[in-house]
Amino acid sequence: MACMDSASRLGPVAFETVRGVSTLGSWTYRIWRPRELQGLVDHLWAYDGPSSHRRKRVFPTGCVELILNFGEAYRLVEGAGVEMCRTAWLSGPQRGPILLEQPTYQHVIGVRLRPAGAHGVVGRPMRETTGLALNLSDLVGAEADELLERCEEARSIERRFRVVAQWIAGCCARAPRMDAAVAWLVGQLDASGGTAPIAALREHAGLSKMRLVEAFRREVGLTPKLYARIVRFRRALGQLQSARPRRLTDVALDAQYYDQAHMNSDFRALGGVTPRAFLAGRHPVGDGSTVSEGPLAS
To answer: What is the CATH number of the domain that holds 13?
Structure first.
């Protein structure tokens, strides 16, 4: 598992920027994948601009989403936990989609925490956060307000990204490491796109079925079988998000579904939408983990 001994080892903030214009105004989307936090963080992102739709559906990714909000509040419409995301909010590992109502204008930073990074930040059994949206302060106390203050004081998105990344690195350096067997299994499932045979992995790790499931729920918040299923679903979403047109049958096979019908079943069960509905509502940026829903924002 990647973990940092010192937050000061973070390198330069080299992020990608995408700008666009909608009928409601211009927007900017930025994404950064810090190499020093590889294995802990998938990416950091920032969005500044008007919302194109009032609501968005957020799909499970097997990861944990940390949101730092510097604008108007988001509202949890469908899902469990805290209803209003006003400042710092954490969405635990989800088993299905959640539905958010977006403010008219968004000014927000997000962090996609991989299981090892979420384990380090949350500092308690991940099963306690499964399926929930939580205020960050309920998990880390006054550190949440301190993190927000430091971000508010930063004069640029580069500095804000660095502040957040340093905070995550510090949390993970102080926290006990994730169970080595679970960390290895997570890595194998991620690398295989969720298709590695769990029974063979369990045998290699030397764990009983019951022990593996309990350890995985404690450290990741999901069962190994559901985590693998979500990883494969995430892979299909990423392919559909691509601007290049793809036949659904080809996407299903590339994501190693048996056929398109099995992929469609996972879309309904894990996302609450069909692949075609996703294509109709996908965002112009991002990795496919969200889709617009409902009428246009006004």
So the answer is: 2.60.120
The answer to whether residue 13 sits within a structural domain is yes
0.85 cut: is pTM over it?
Answer: yes
* CB atoms closer than 10 angstroms to residue 291: 26
CA distances from 132 to 41, 82, 97, 127, 227 (A): 20, 8, 11, 10, 16
Query: For 177-209, b where at least 16 C-beta lie within 10 A, e where not — what string?
Result: ebbebbbebbbbbbebbbebebeebbeebebee
Place of tokens 């006004």: 298
Taking the CA atoms of residue 118, residue 121, residue 124 and residue 129 in that order, the dihedral angle to the nearest 10 degrees is: -50
* Domain-embedded: residue 2: no
Chain segment 100-150, per-residue pLDDT in tens: 999 999 999 999 999 999 999 999 999 999 999 999 999 999 999 999 999
Same domain, 126 and 19: yes
- Residues 214, 286: one domain? yes
Torsion sign (Cα): 209, 213, 216, 222: positive
pLDDT tens sequence across 13-64: 888 999 999 888 999 999 999 999 999 999 999 999 999 899 999 999 999 9
Q: What CATH number corresponds to the domain at position 227?
A: 1.10.10.60
Q: What is the CA radius of gyration of the chain?
A: 19
- Is residue 13 domain-shared with residue 158, that is, in the same domain? yes
Whether pLDDT at 298 is above 70: no
**259 shares a domain with 140:** no
